[in-house]
Design goal:
Blueprint (H helix, E strand, L loop, with lengths): L16 E11 L2 E13 L6 E9 L5 E11 L4 E8 L3 E11 L3 E13 L6 E11 L2 E10 L5 E13 L1
Antiparallel strand pairs: 1-2, 1-10, 2-3, 3-4, 4-5, 5-6, 6-7, 7-8, 8-9, 9-10
Length: 163
Amino acid sequence: MQPPLHEACLPLAVILGVWRGSGTGHYPTIDDFDYSEEVVFGHVGKPFVTYSQKTKSLSNGQPLHSEQGFLRVVDNTTLELVVAQPTGIVETHVGAYASNDESFIANFESAEVVTTPSAKSVEQVSRLIRIDRNQLSYDVSMAAVGQPLQHHLEATLQRVQPD
């Protein structure tokens, strides 16, 4: 039996669940690519929301990327996002958000990006997440490997299972 959503996370209730869809990626240092994706926002009754994401190549079904994280409500307009990637990158973000029963928007800017010694260099990340009813879309921009901040990813996902 799942515990009730923590009171601090009530503004995030609209994002909870399993989302699936597809997206595209590009960056000057790599070939353009298309991917399928699953995102899960969940909770354990504590004052944070869990986040997991995984993608696969649309052309051959091979795994591409995954990340895990947490959303923390600071107040009624501010969120913090922590994201860890198996590639050795950890992002901490602060973002402004607005939500209601059917929609959500959050604009995150990295407060800090830390990498392990063997990871590619990433200096800055921004993430824009939008939900309108049962559709989630996002855009990710990144400054990495000597390139300035620029658009990297965009995707549209449908809710397939509410939390």
